[in-house]
Protein backbone atom coordinates (compact mmCIF):
# COMPACT_ATOMS: atom_id res chain seq x y z
CA UNK A 1 0.00 0.00 0.00
CA UNK A 2 1.35 3.36 -1.02
CA UNK A 3 0.04 6.89 -1.47
CA UNK A 4 1.72 9.33 -3.84
CA UNK A 5 1.14 13.01 -3.08
CA UNK A 6 1.47 14.48 -6.57
CA UNK A 7 1.75 18.13 -7.49
CA UNK A 8 -0.19 18.67 -10.73
CA UNK A 9 1.29 22.10 -11.35
CA UNK A 10 -0.72 25.27 -11.96
CA UNK A 11 -2.99 23.95 -14.71
CA UNK A 12 -1.03 23.73 -17.96
CA UNK A 13 -0.93 19.96 -18.61
CA UNK A 14 2.57 20.34 -20.03
CA UNK A 15 3.86 21.33 -16.60
CA UNK A 16 3.04 18.01 -14.95
CA UNK A 17 6.27 16.18 -14.14
CA UNK A 18 7.24 12.96 -15.91
CA UNK A 19 7.13 11.12 -12.59
CA UNK A 20 3.66 12.48 -11.86
CA UNK A 21 2.43 11.22 -15.23
CA UNK A 22 4.03 7.81 -14.65
CA UNK A 23 2.25 7.42 -11.30
CA UNK A 24 -1.12 8.42 -12.77
CA UNK A 25 -0.68 5.81 -15.50
CA UNK A 26 -0.29 3.00 -12.96
CA UNK A 27 -2.32 4.01 -9.88
CA UNK A 28 -5.36 1.98 -8.79
CA UNK A 29 -7.13 5.03 -7.33
CA UNK A 30 -6.80 8.72 -8.23
CA UNK A 31 -8.04 11.30 -5.73
CA UNK A 32 -7.98 14.79 -7.22
CA UNK A 33 -8.62 18.43 -6.32
CA UNK A 34 -10.62 21.28 -7.83
CA UNK A 35 -7.51 23.14 -8.98
CA UNK A 36 -6.03 20.17 -10.87
CA UNK A 37 -6.72 20.30 -14.62
CA UNK A 38 -9.08 17.43 -15.37
CA UNK A 39 -7.20 16.63 -18.59
CA UNK A 40 -4.63 14.94 -16.33
CA UNK A 41 -7.22 12.21 -15.82
CA UNK A 42 -6.64 11.14 -19.42
CA UNK A 43 -3.35 9.65 -18.19
CA UNK A 44 -5.13 7.33 -15.77
CA UNK A 45 -5.77 3.66 -16.31
CA UNK A 46 -9.19 3.01 -17.82
CA UNK A 47 -10.08 0.84 -14.85
CA UNK A 48 -8.76 3.24 -12.20
CA UNK A 49 -11.16 4.52 -9.56
CA UNK A 50 -11.42 8.31 -9.92
CA UNK A 51 -12.58 10.31 -6.88
CA UNK A 52 -13.12 14.08 -6.83
CA UNK A 53 -12.58 15.80 -3.47
CA UNK A 54 -12.16 19.40 -4.58
CA UNK A 55 -12.80 22.58 -2.69
CA UNK A 56 -14.19 25.72 -4.28
CA UNK A 57 -14.92 28.94 -2.46
CA UNK A 58 -15.53 27.21 0.87
CA UNK A 59 -17.73 24.52 -0.70
CA UNK A 60 -15.97 21.28 0.22
CA UNK A 61 -16.96 18.07 -1.54
CA UNK A 62 -15.16 16.32 1.33
CA UNK A 63 -13.79 18.01 4.47
CA UNK A 64 -10.05 17.56 4.97
CA UNK A 65 -10.41 14.99 7.75
CA UNK A 66 -12.57 12.82 5.47
CA UNK A 67 -10.04 13.17 2.65
CA UNK A 68 -7.35 11.95 5.03
CA UNK A 69 -9.50 8.98 6.05
CA UNK A 70 -10.31 8.19 2.42
CA UNK A 71 -6.62 7.97 1.56
CA UNK A 72 -5.95 5.70 4.53
CA UNK A 73 -8.93 3.44 3.79
CA UNK A 74 -8.08 3.00 0.10
CA UNK A 75 -4.40 2.38 0.86
CA UNK A 76 -5.25 -0.28 3.45
CA UNK A 77 -7.21 -2.09 0.76
CA UNK A 78 -3.79 -2.75 -0.74
CA UNK A 79 -4.15 -0.21 -3.51
CA UNK A 80 -1.73 2.35 -4.96
CA UNK A 81 -3.21 5.83 -4.56
CA UNK A 82 -2.39 8.92 -6.59
CA UNK A 83 -3.40 11.99 -4.59
CA UNK A 84 -3.40 14.72 -7.26
CA UNK A 85 -3.18 18.27 -5.92
CA UNK A 86 -2.96 21.57 -7.73
CA UNK A 87 0.46 23.23 -7.75
CA UNK A 88 2.89 21.63 -5.31
CA UNK A 89 1.62 19.48 -2.41
CA UNK A 90 3.80 21.27 0.13
CA UNK A 91 3.16 24.86 -1.00
CA UNK A 92 -0.10 25.76 0.76
CA UNK A 93 -1.50 22.45 -0.40
CA UNK A 94 -1.92 20.74 2.98
CA UNK A 95 0.18 17.91 1.60
CA UNK A 96 2.30 17.75 4.73
CA UNK A 97 -0.82 17.35 6.87
CA UNK A 98 -2.00 14.47 4.69
CA UNK A 99 1.46 12.89 4.89
CA UNK A 100 1.39 13.09 8.70
CA UNK A 101 -2.04 11.44 8.82
CA UNK A 102 -0.81 8.64 6.55
CA UNK A 103 2.23 8.04 8.72
CA UNK A 104 0.09 7.97 11.85
CA UNK A 105 -2.09 5.30 10.21
CA UNK A 106 0.93 3.24 9.19
CA UNK A 107 0.59 4.00 5.47
CA UNK A 108 3.66 4.61 3.32
CA UNK A 109 3.76 7.71 1.13
CA UNK A 110 5.94 9.49 -1.40
CA UNK A 111 5.84 13.11 -2.54
CA UNK A 112 6.03 14.00 -6.23
CA UNK A 113 6.71 17.75 -6.23
CA UNK A 114 4.87 19.98 -8.69
CA UNK A 115 5.44 23.38 -10.25
CA UNK A 116 3.84 25.92 -7.96
CA UNK A 117 1.59 28.61 -9.40
CA UNK A 118 3.61 31.10 -7.37
CA UNK A 119 6.39 30.64 -9.92
CA UNK A 120 4.66 29.41 -13.08
CA UNK A 121 1.54 31.58 -12.96
CA UNK A 122 3.68 34.67 -12.54
CA UNK A 123 6.10 33.59 -15.27
CA UNK A 124 3.20 33.20 -17.74
CA UNK A 125 2.16 36.74 -16.83
CA UNK A 126 5.65 38.10 -17.52
CA UNK A 127 6.52 38.51 -13.84
CA UNK A 128 9.73 36.72 -12.74
CA UNK A 129 9.83 36.13 -9.00
CA UNK A 130 13.46 37.29 -8.90
CA UNK A 131 15.58 39.56 -11.09
CA UNK A 132 19.06 40.93 -10.48
CA UNK A 133 17.85 44.49 -10.97
CA UNK A 134 14.66 44.25 -8.91
CA UNK A 135 14.52 41.45 -6.33
CA UNK A 136 17.03 38.97 -4.89
CA UNK A 137 14.51 37.01 -2.84
CA UNK A 138 10.89 35.93 -2.88
CA UNK A 139 8.40 35.23 -0.11
CA UNK A 140 5.40 32.93 -0.52
CA UNK A 141 2.72 34.01 1.93
CA UNK A 142 -0.73 32.69 2.73
CA UNK A 143 -3.43 35.30 2.39
CA UNK A 144 -5.81 33.05 4.28
CA UNK A 145 -4.43 31.77 7.57
CA UNK A 146 -5.93 28.99 9.65
CA UNK A 147 -9.17 30.55 10.96
CA UNK A 148 -8.75 28.80 14.32
CA UNK A 149 -5.55 30.73 15.08
CA UNK A 150 -5.98 33.59 17.58
CA UNK A 151 -3.03 35.64 16.27
CA UNK A 152 -1.44 36.14 12.88
CA UNK A 153 1.90 34.58 12.04
CA UNK A 154 2.65 37.30 9.52
CA UNK A 155 5.20 39.96 10.42
CA UNK A 156 3.99 42.89 8.34
CA UNK A 157 6.96 45.07 9.30
CA UNK A 158 9.41 42.45 8.07
CA UNK A 159 7.48 41.88 4.85
CA UNK A 160 7.20 45.59 4.13
CA UNK A 161 10.92 46.19 4.62
CA UNK A 162 12.26 42.98 3.04
CA UNK A 163 12.60 44.16 -0.60
CA UNK A 164 11.51 40.61 -1.53
CA UNK A 165 8.91 39.83 -4.14
CA UNK A 166 5.80 39.07 -2.09
CA UNK A 167 3.44 36.43 -3.48
CA UNK A 168 0.17 35.95 -1.59
CA UNK A 169 -1.82 32.76 -2.14
CA UNK A 170 -5.57 32.53 -1.40
CA UNK A 171 -5.74 36.19 -0.50
CA UNK A 172 -8.39 37.75 -2.75
CA UNK A 173 -10.99 38.16 -0.01
CA UNK A 174 -8.36 39.86 2.13
CA UNK A 175 -6.74 41.97 -0.59
CA UNK A 176 -7.76 45.35 0.91
CA UNK A 177 -6.41 44.28 4.32
CA UNK A 178 -3.18 42.96 2.82
CA UNK A 179 -2.58 46.24 1.00
CA UNK A 180 -3.43 48.39 4.02
CA UNK A 181 -1.30 46.27 6.40
CA UNK A 182 1.74 46.56 4.12
CA UNK A 183 1.30 50.32 3.72
CA UNK A 184 0.75 50.75 7.48
CA UNK A 185 4.04 48.89 7.99
CA UNK A 186 5.87 51.40 5.82
CA UNK A 187 5.65 50.04 2.27
CA UNK A 188 4.97 52.76 -0.29
CA UNK A 189 1.55 52.76 -1.89
CA UNK A 190 3.28 53.30 -5.24
CA UNK A 191 5.03 49.91 -5.07
CA UNK A 192 4.18 47.94 -8.24
CA UNK A 193 1.66 45.17 -7.62
CA UNK A 194 -0.27 42.71 -9.78
CA UNK A 195 -2.98 40.07 -9.84
CA UNK A 196 -2.74 36.80 -11.75
CA UNK A 197 -6.00 34.87 -12.13
CA UNK A 198 -5.96 31.14 -13.00
CA UNK A 199 -2.29 31.46 -13.93
CA UNK A 200 -0.94 29.20 -16.70
CA UNK A 201 -4.40 27.99 -17.72
CA UNK A 202 -6.63 28.97 -20.63
CA UNK A 203 -8.52 31.23 -18.18
CA UNK A 204 -5.34 33.11 -17.31
CA UNK A 205 -5.49 36.89 -17.06
CA UNK A 206 -3.61 39.52 -15.13
CA UNK A 207 -3.58 43.18 -14.24
CA UNK A 208 -0.86 45.49 -12.92
CA UNK A 209 -1.18 48.54 -10.73
CA UNK A 210 0.26 49.66 -7.44
CA UNK A 211 -0.18 48.48 -3.89
CA UNK A 212 -2.58 51.36 -3.33
CA UNK A 213 -4.66 50.90 -6.50
CA UNK A 214 -4.76 47.10 -6.67
CA UNK A 215 -7.91 46.61 -4.51
CA UNK A 216 -9.81 49.04 -6.73
CA UNK A 217 -8.54 47.42 -9.94
CA UNK A 218 -9.53 44.01 -8.62
CA UNK A 219 -13.08 45.20 -8.08
CA UNK A 220 -13.32 47.06 -11.38
CA UNK A 221 -11.94 44.16 -13.42
CA UNK A 222 -13.84 41.53 -11.41
CA UNK A 223 -10.88 39.49 -10.26
CA UNK A 224 -11.93 36.61 -8.02
CA UNK A 225 -10.31 33.50 -6.59
CA UNK A 226 -8.13 31.76 -7.50
CA UNK A 227 -5.83 34.74 -8.01
CA UNK A 228 -2.28 35.39 -6.85
CA UNK A 229 -1.38 38.77 -5.39
CA UNK A 230 2.12 39.91 -6.30
CA UNK A 231 3.86 42.90 -4.74
CA UNK A 232 7.29 44.10 -5.80
CA UNK A 233 9.40 45.84 -8.41
CA UNK A 234 9.39 42.74 -10.66
CA UNK A 235 5.80 43.62 -11.61
CA UNK A 236 7.29 46.34 -13.83
CA UNK A 237 8.37 43.58 -16.23
CA UNK A 238 4.82 42.41 -16.88
CA UNK A 239 4.28 44.27 -20.14
CA UNK A 240 7.71 43.42 -21.51
CA UNK A 241 7.88 39.71 -20.64
CA UNK A 242 4.23 38.73 -20.86
CA UNK A 243 4.17 36.04 -23.56
CA UNK A 244 1.20 33.89 -22.62
CA UNK A 245 -1.48 36.54 -22.89
CA UNK A 246 -0.50 37.13 -26.52
CA UNK A 247 -1.93 33.76 -27.56
CA UNK A 248 -4.75 34.51 -30.02
CA UNK A 249 -7.32 32.09 -28.60
CA UNK A 250 -6.62 32.74 -24.90
CA UNK A 251 -9.83 32.37 -22.95
CA UNK A 252 -11.90 31.36 -25.98
CA UNK A 253 -14.15 28.39 -25.28
CA UNK A 254 -14.02 26.00 -28.23
CA UNK A 255 -15.96 22.75 -28.53
CA UNK A 256 -14.28 19.78 -30.21
CA UNK A 257 -16.82 17.27 -31.53
CA UNK A 258 -14.44 14.68 -33.02
CA UNK A 259 -14.30 11.13 -31.76
CA UNK A 260 -12.23 10.94 -28.61
CA UNK A 261 -9.63 8.78 -30.36
CA UNK A 262 -8.97 11.52 -32.94
CA UNK A 263 -9.67 14.61 -30.82
CA UNK A 264 -6.22 14.92 -29.24
CA UNK A 265 -4.50 16.51 -32.23
CA UNK A 266 -7.21 19.13 -32.74
CA UNK A 267 -7.51 19.81 -29.01
CA UNK A 268 -3.73 20.11 -28.59
CA UNK A 269 -3.39 22.57 -31.47
CA UNK A 270 -6.21 24.72 -30.09
CA UNK A 271 -4.82 24.61 -26.56
CA UNK A 272 -1.40 25.65 -27.87
CA UNK A 273 -3.09 28.85 -29.05
CA UNK A 274 -4.63 29.41 -25.60
CA UNK A 275 -8.14 28.01 -26.15
CA UNK A 276 -10.27 26.49 -23.42
CA UNK A 277 -11.17 23.25 -25.16
CA UNK A 278 -14.42 21.49 -24.29
CA UNK A 279 -14.21 17.89 -25.48
CA UNK A 280 -17.66 16.79 -26.59
CA UNK A 281 -17.15 13.73 -28.79
CA UNK A 282 -20.27 13.15 -30.85
CA UNK A 283 -19.07 9.98 -32.54
CA UNK A 284 -17.23 6.90 -31.33
CA UNK A 285 -15.15 4.66 -33.57
CA UNK A 286 -15.70 0.97 -32.89
CA UNK A 287 -14.26 -2.23 -34.43
CA UNK A 288 -16.46 -4.50 -36.51
CA UNK A 289 -18.24 -7.39 -34.85
CA UNK A 290 -18.20 -9.45 -38.05
CA UNK A 291 -15.03 -9.62 -40.19
CA UNK A 292 -16.39 -12.01 -42.84
CA UNK A 293 -16.48 -9.47 -45.70
CA UNK A 294 -13.18 -7.85 -44.75
CA UNK A 295 -11.39 -11.18 -44.42
CA UNK A 296 -12.66 -12.24 -47.83
CA UNK A 297 -11.24 -9.03 -49.33
CA UNK A 298 -7.90 -9.62 -47.59
CA UNK A 299 -7.76 -13.11 -49.09
CA UNK A 300 -8.06 -11.49 -52.55
CA UNK A 301 -5.80 -8.51 -51.82
CA UNK A 302 -3.33 -9.48 -54.54
CA UNK A 303 -6.02 -9.09 -57.20
CA UNK A 304 -6.55 -5.36 -56.59
CA UNK A 305 -4.78 -2.62 -58.57
CA UNK A 306 -5.54 0.17 -56.08
CA UNK A 307 -6.21 0.41 -52.37
CA UNK A 308 -7.92 3.68 -51.35
CA UNK A 309 -7.97 4.91 -47.73
CA UNK A 310 -10.41 7.70 -46.91
CA UNK A 311 -9.47 8.22 -43.24
CA UNK A 312 -6.83 7.51 -40.64
CA UNK A 313 -9.41 5.28 -38.93
CA UNK A 314 -9.59 3.19 -42.08
CA UNK A 315 -5.82 2.75 -42.06
CA UNK A 316 -5.70 1.79 -38.39
CA UNK A 317 -8.53 -0.76 -38.45
CA UNK A 318 -7.51 -2.24 -41.81
CA UNK A 319 -3.98 -2.69 -40.49
CA UNK A 320 -5.17 -4.22 -37.24
CA UNK A 321 -7.08 -6.89 -39.15
CA UNK A 322 -4.24 -7.38 -41.60
CA UNK A 323 -1.90 -8.25 -38.72
CA UNK A 324 -4.56 -10.29 -36.91
CA UNK A 325 -4.85 -12.56 -39.96
CA UNK A 326 -1.11 -13.18 -40.07
CA UNK A 327 -0.25 -10.68 -42.81
CA UNK A 328 1.89 -7.56 -42.96
CA UNK A 329 2.88 -4.80 -45.41
CA UNK A 330 4.11 -7.38 -47.93
CA UNK A 331 0.47 -8.26 -48.65
CA UNK A 332 0.18 -4.87 -50.44
CA UNK A 333 2.96 -5.67 -52.92
CA UNK A 334 1.95 -4.71 -56.47
CA UNK A 335 -1.01 -2.63 -55.29
CA UNK A 336 -1.00 1.15 -55.58
CA UNK A 337 -2.23 3.05 -52.53
CA UNK A 338 -4.19 6.32 -52.39
CA UNK A 339 -4.84 8.48 -49.30
CA UNK A 340 -7.52 11.15 -49.01
CA UNK A 341 -5.36 13.55 -47.01
CA UNK A 342 -2.04 14.11 -45.24
CA UNK A 343 -3.10 12.60 -41.91
CA UNK A 344 -4.20 9.42 -43.67
CA UNK A 345 -0.98 9.41 -45.71
CA UNK A 346 1.04 9.79 -42.50
CA UNK A 347 -0.81 6.87 -40.94
CA UNK A 348 0.25 4.76 -43.91
CA UNK A 349 3.81 6.05 -43.73
CA UNK A 350 3.99 5.11 -40.05
CA UNK A 351 3.30 1.56 -41.20
CA UNK A 352 5.94 1.62 -43.93
CA UNK A 353 3.67 2.49 -46.87
CA UNK A 354 4.19 5.65 -48.93
CA UNK A 355 0.98 6.70 -50.68
CA UNK A 356 1.18 6.64 -54.47
CA UNK A 357 -1.50 9.30 -54.74
CA UNK A 358 -2.51 12.23 -52.50
CA UNK A 359 -5.04 14.72 -53.93
CA UNK A 360 -4.53 18.48 -53.95
CA UNK A 361 -7.88 18.95 -52.19
CA UNK A 362 -8.76 16.50 -49.48
CA UNK A 363 -12.30 15.43 -50.37
CA UNK A 364 -13.65 12.41 -52.22
CA UNK A 365 -14.37 14.32 -55.43
CA UNK A 366 -10.71 15.20 -55.90
CA UNK A 367 -9.57 11.70 -55.01
CA UNK A 368 -11.67 10.22 -57.82
CA UNK A 369 -10.61 12.89 -60.30
CA UNK A 370 -6.92 12.55 -59.46
CA UNK A 371 -6.90 8.76 -59.46
CA UNK A 372 -8.52 8.65 -62.88
CA UNK A 373 -5.92 11.09 -64.15
CA UNK A 374 -3.26 8.75 -62.72
CA UNK A 375 -4.50 5.83 -64.77
CA UNK A 376 -6.98 4.17 -62.43
CA UNK A 377 -9.78 4.01 -65.01
CA UNK A 378 -10.96 0.45 -65.52
CA UNK A 379 -8.89 -0.90 -62.63
CA UNK A 380 -9.93 -3.06 -59.70
CA UNK A 381 -10.10 -0.95 -56.55
CA UNK A 382 -10.61 -1.77 -52.86
CA UNK A 383 -11.94 0.97 -50.55
CA UNK A 384 -11.65 0.05 -46.81
CA UNK A 385 -13.75 2.56 -44.90
CA UNK A 386 -16.46 3.13 -42.32
CA UNK A 387 -19.56 0.98 -42.42
CA UNK A 388 -21.64 4.07 -43.23
CA UNK A 389 -20.08 6.69 -45.54
CA UNK A 390 -20.73 8.75 -48.66
CA UNK A 391 -20.97 6.82 -51.91
CA UNK A 392 -19.59 9.60 -54.12
CA UNK A 393 -16.06 8.23 -54.44
CA UNK A 394 -16.97 4.65 -55.40
CA UNK A 395 -19.76 5.89 -57.69
CA UNK A 396 -17.41 8.23 -59.59
CA UNK A 397 -14.82 5.48 -59.99
CA UNK A 398 -17.46 3.04 -61.22
CA UNK A 399 -18.61 5.57 -63.83
CA UNK A 400 -15.06 5.41 -65.21
CA UNK A 401 -15.30 1.66 -65.61
CA UNK A 402 -13.56 0.71 -62.37
CA UNK A 403 -14.50 -2.42 -60.45
CA UNK A 404 -14.89 -1.05 -56.92
CA UNK A 405 -15.32 -3.11 -53.75
CA UNK A 406 -16.29 -1.11 -50.70
CA UNK A 407 -15.40 -3.00 -47.53
CA UNK A 408 -16.26 -1.82 -43.99
CA UNK A 409 -13.31 -1.98 -41.58
CA UNK A 410 -14.88 -0.07 -38.68
CA UNK A 411 -18.10 1.66 -37.79
CA UNK A 412 -19.03 4.95 -36.18
CA UNK A 413 -21.76 5.26 -33.59
CA UNK A 414 -23.13 8.19 -31.67
CA UNK A 415 -21.00 8.85 -28.61
CA UNK A 416 -22.52 8.89 -25.16
CA UNK A 417 -21.42 12.43 -24.32
CA UNK A 418 -22.72 14.47 -21.40
CA UNK A 419 -25.06 16.90 -23.17
CA UNK A 420 -26.23 18.38 -19.85
CA UNK A 421 -22.66 19.42 -19.00
CA UNK A 422 -22.20 21.12 -22.37
CA UNK A 423 -25.56 22.88 -22.07
CA UNK A 424 -24.38 24.24 -18.72
CA UNK A 425 -21.22 25.63 -20.35
CA UNK A 426 -23.31 27.14 -23.17
CA UNK A 427 -25.68 28.69 -20.64
CA UNK A 428 -22.74 30.32 -18.86
CA UNK A 429 -21.47 31.86 -22.10
CA UNK A 430 -18.39 29.67 -22.09
CA UNK A 431 -18.47 28.69 -25.78
CA UNK A 432 -17.31 31.01 -28.54
CA UNK A 433 -16.79 28.40 -31.27
CA UNK A 434 -17.82 24.85 -32.18
CA UNK A 435 -15.66 22.82 -34.57
CA UNK A 436 -16.92 20.11 -36.89
CA UNK A 437 -14.51 17.76 -38.68
CA UNK A 438 -17.06 15.59 -40.49
CA UNK A 439 -20.73 15.44 -41.43
CA UNK A 440 -21.40 12.79 -38.79
CA UNK A 441 -20.15 15.10 -36.05
CA UNK A 442 -22.72 17.67 -37.19
CA UNK A 443 -25.61 15.22 -37.26
CA UNK A 444 -24.74 13.72 -33.90
CA UNK A 445 -24.08 17.10 -32.27
CA UNK A 446 -27.59 18.31 -33.05
CA UNK A 447 -29.04 14.96 -32.03
CA UNK A 448 -27.50 15.55 -28.60
CA UNK A 449 -27.99 19.33 -28.48
CA UNK A 450 -31.17 20.37 -30.34
CA UNK A 451 -30.59 23.13 -32.88
CA UNK A 452 -33.17 25.49 -31.34
CA UNK A 453 -31.65 25.03 -27.89
CA UNK A 454 -28.19 25.75 -29.26
CA UNK A 455 -29.42 28.95 -30.96
CA UNK A 456 -31.01 30.10 -27.71
CA UNK A 457 -28.05 29.39 -25.47
CA UNK A 458 -25.20 30.38 -27.81
CA UNK A 459 -26.51 32.90 -30.35
CA UNK A 460 -23.05 34.38 -30.89
CA UNK A 461 -21.06 31.15 -31.09
CA UNK A 462 -19.15 30.73 -34.35
CA UNK A 463 -19.29 27.48 -36.30
CA UNK A 464 -16.15 26.10 -37.92
CA UNK A 465 -16.22 23.31 -40.52
CA UNK A 466 -13.28 21.43 -41.98
CA UNK A 467 -14.66 21.51 -45.53
CA UNK A 468 -17.63 22.00 -47.85
CA UNK A 469 -19.21 18.58 -47.30
CA UNK A 470 -19.40 19.18 -43.55
CA UNK A 471 -20.60 22.74 -44.21
CA UNK A 472 -23.46 21.47 -46.38
CA UNK A 473 -24.55 19.14 -43.58
CA UNK A 474 -24.54 22.07 -41.16
CA UNK A 475 -26.81 24.05 -43.50
CA UNK A 476 -29.46 21.34 -43.18
CA UNK A 477 -29.94 22.50 -39.61
CA UNK A 478 -30.33 26.12 -40.65
CA UNK A 479 -26.83 27.31 -39.73
CA UNK A 480 -24.34 29.19 -41.83
CA UNK A 481 -20.64 28.48 -41.70
CA UNK A 482 -18.49 31.18 -40.09
CA UNK A 483 -15.08 29.54 -40.48
CA UNK A 484 -13.80 27.15 -43.15
CA UNK A 485 -10.18 26.60 -44.24
CA UNK A 486 -9.03 26.43 -47.83
CA UNK A 487 -7.19 23.17 -47.10
CA UNK A 488 -9.40 20.55 -45.53
CA UNK A 489 -7.03 19.49 -42.75
CA UNK A 490 -7.02 19.78 -38.97
CA UNK A 491 -4.02 22.19 -38.84
CA UNK A 492 -5.69 24.38 -41.48
CA UNK A 493 -8.94 24.36 -39.50
CA UNK A 494 -7.12 25.55 -36.38
CA UNK A 495 -5.33 28.28 -38.35
CA UNK A 496 -8.66 29.42 -39.80
CA UNK A 497 -10.09 29.71 -36.29
CA UNK A 498 -7.01 31.69 -35.19
CA UNK A 499 -7.24 34.01 -38.21
CA UNK A 500 -10.94 34.62 -37.64
CA UNK A 501 -10.49 35.46 -33.96
CA UNK A 502 -7.53 37.74 -34.72
CA UNK A 503 -9.71 40.09 -36.76
Helix and strand arrangement:
Elements lengths: L1 E6 L10 H9 L2 E4 L16 E4 L2 E2 L2 E2 L3 H13 L3 E6 L9 H10 L3 E5 L4 H8 L13 E5 L13 H6 L3 E5 L5 H10 L7 E6 L7 E6 L3 H7 L6 E5 L6 H4 L11 E4 L3 H13 L3 E4 L3 E5 L4 H8 L6 E4 L2 H13 L11 E4 L2 H8 L14 H10 L6 E7 L5 H8 L3 E12 L4 H9 L5 E4 L2 H10 L2 H7 L4 E4 L2 H8 L14 H13 L1
Parallel strand pairs: 1-6, 1-7, 2-3, 2-6, 8-9, 13-14, 13-20, 16-17, 16-18, 18-19, 20-21
Antiparallel strand pairs: 4-5, 9-12, 10-11, 10-12, 15-19
Helix pairs in contact: 11-12, 13-14, 16-18
InterPro entries: 4pyrrol_Mease, 4pyrrol_Methylase_sf, 4pyrrol_syn_uPrphyn_synt_sf, 4pyrrol_synth_uPrphyn_synth, 4pyrrole_Mease_sub1, 4pyrrole_Mease_sub2, CobA/CysG_C, Siro_Cobalamin_biosynth
GO biological process, one term: siroheme biosynthetic process
GO molecular function: uroporphyrin-III C-methyltransferase activity; uroporphyrinogen-III synthase activity
- Which structural class do you get from the secondary structure elements? alpha/beta
Q: Report, as a whole number of angstroms, the end-to-end distance.
A: 55 Å
Mean pLDDT: 92
Q: What radius of gyration results from the CA coordinates?
A: 28 Å
CATH superfamily of the largest domain: Tetrapyrrole methylase, C-terminal domain
Number of domains: 4
Strand order of the largest sheet: 3-2-6-1-7
Sketch the major β-sheet.
5 strands, parallel
Strand elements, count: 21
| Topology-level CATH name of the largest domain | Methyltransferase, Cobalt-precorrin-4 Transmethylase, Domain 2
CATH architecture of the largest domain: 2-Layer Sandwich
Oligomeric form of this entry? Answer: single chain
Keywords: Cobalamin biosynthesis, Methyltransferase, Porphyrin biosynthesis, S-adenosyl-L-methionine, Transferase
Enzyme class: transferase
Protein name: uroporphyrinogen-III C-methyltransferase
GO biological process, one term: siroheme biosynthetic process
